[in-house]
Structure formats: structure tokens, C-alpha cells
Amino acid sequence: MPGTHPTPSADSWRDSLAQAFGEVVGRPLASFPDVPYGACYTGNFLAESEVDGEPAWVDRAAPAGAEPVRPDHLLLTPPGDRDETVLVFDASRSLFTVVADAFPTGLAEHLPALGPAHGDLLSGAELGRLAERHGVDLAAEGVPGRAWRVWEARIASGDSLLDALRAATGLHAAAGPDEVPAGPGDAADEVEEEAHERVAAVRDDALRAYLAAFRDPESHDLALSLHAMADAETDDGLVIQREGAADQYEVTVRRAHG
User: Fold this and answer.
1) Phi, psi for 165 (deg, rounded to 5)
2) Contact of 231 with 254, CB cutoff 8 Å
3) What pTM did the predictor assign?
4) What is the dihedral of CA 174, 179, 184, 190, to 10 degrees?
5) First to last CA, the chain
């Protein structure tokens, strides 16, 4: 019920979140390197839903990071849940696959010379700057659909590890315990008791109940990737990964690119 908790100060609420997420990832957040982190959405569902080619990713101010992207089909939990959370993305920090010979003459010739920092991938910011330099509207109907595709969609957040973890769990806007949802959609009804036990040390009641779903490796909707967690023990760039809708997409928190 709203109003059942005193409104916490911003600092005390961040402390509560940091303590809670430390239990979720298995170590205190202060023990991670003080570098930028991000939360990213990847997987087959990007292509299967055709969200990876929606013009909003490259339209107007989105590649510069001045306008967020809100695709209807990318959710924190699968469609049909009671409490669907529509994810908001930062196109400038998302990574795109590009096909040089599918771009208009002029821009295509300069793609190889750009020297992408991510192999065959370009960030939205890099792609946007190149298109602007050559006066190409990447969202126009005349640009072939295969010229670019979103490969890794960056969920909009600040650069801190706490910000990235909040974005990856739909808690980016919660300013206190009264704003924490009862559970992440229908998935909360299926959380195994072991998952609740894994977050038993979370001090805040609302956070403890909500975040249990993000520690359940058996969920069909929000499965914690045990393989990724094992990798995180030796790779300090990887923090946590969840697999959604029976492995159709992944939400990963890791050290930011670049």
C-alpha cells in the first residue's frame, strides 16, 4: 500500500539498493572496479520481432543519445505479464551490424575507413556521425533494410554499476520502497523458494521480495544464467546475465564498451 514507508533520502535509498544488488550478484558492489557499466539486451528475439530494424533507432536525435528509443516489443518480462515493463534504450550506445554495400554511395565507401572499435560492429553514435557527415537519412525508405541492424541494444541508464543494475531490473525509476513493484510480472508467481533464500540477506522488504525473481535459475521468464555467473568469477567485466522467454533474449550487465 502506498505511503506505508517513510520516504527515504536519496542517499539512504541508494545504500539500500546497493546492499540489495550486492546480494543479487554475490558480492558487494564496492568490490567491483570503478569503471562505466551498462545493461544490454541481446538475442534472437531482436531479429524475430523485427525490432532490430525499426527506424526509431536511427531517426532524428536517437543516434546522438538525445532521444530515447521505446520499442513496444522489448519488455523486461515476456508479453502478457501483469506488470509488463517497457524497456527504454539508448541508441547512441547500442551496437549495430552494418553491411557496407547496402548503404548509399559515398557513405558506403567510408565505412571501412571508420575502423570500428568493435570488429564488424558500429555504435549508434559512430553510425549517426557518419550518416550526418554524408547527409544520409538512415531512417528513410530508400535505405535498404539490410544496411544496418541493432545487434546489442543498450538499456538507457547512467554509467555506474548500480544504475546499470537498476535499469536491468526495471527499478531505474523507483525512488523508495513504495515504488518497488510487488513482483516482475507473472514470473514472480513461479519463483522457487531457493531463489528467495539467495536474497534473504537483503535488508529492505520490498527489494527482497522483488529481486528474488532475478536469482531464480529455473524460471522460464527470468532465468539467471548460471553459466554466465560462473564466467563472472574470472571475468570482472561481466556482472550478471538473465535469459528471458526460454533463451530467446538475454539481459546482461557488464563493463561498458569503449
Assistant:
1) -65, -40
2) no
3) 0.87
4) 140
5) 43
The Cα-based distances of 43 to 47, 150, 223 in angstroms read 8, 11, 14
SS3 207: helix
pLDDT of residue 33: 92
Question: For residue 244, what pLDDT is reported?
Answer: 78
DSSP 67-89: S-B--TT-BSS-TT-TT--B--B
SS3 state of residue 133 = helix
Half-sphere exposure of 83 (CA within 13 A, CB side): 14
Burial class for 161, CB neighbours closer than 10 Å (0-12, 13-18, 19+): buried
Supply 93's cell numbers: 550506445
Which parts of the chain have pLDDT scores under 70?
1-6, 77-84, 104-120, 142-145, 183-189, 232-234, 236, 246, 258
